[in-house]
């Protein structure tokens, strides 16, 4: 299973907010933002900070994608 943050990018577009603005508003590191951009794992603390800054829930910013079974 893997995380996908496409919902987060849509929220940022809808709010006309840049990634840099989110970094400042949520007080997260640029490293955490880079991981989000690559759909890599980040700490739950980072996700909570983003949710507080955007006024949303974790379900609003990410989804879990199951691995394909061959």
From TrEMBL:
Gene3D superfamilies: lambda repressor-like DNA-binding domains. Residues 44-61 form the HTH cro/C1-type domain. This is HTH cro/C1-type domain-containing protein. GO terms for molecular function: DNA binding.
């Amino acid at each position: 299973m893997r995380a996908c943050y496409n919902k987060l990018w849509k929220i940022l577009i809808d709010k006309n907010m840049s990634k840099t603005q989110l970094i400042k508003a949520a007080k997260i590191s640029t490293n955490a933002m880079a991981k989000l951009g690559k759909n890599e794992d980040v700490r739950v603390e980072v996700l909570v900070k983003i949710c507080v800054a955007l006024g949303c829930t974790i379900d609003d910013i990410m989804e879990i994608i199951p691995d394909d079974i061959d």
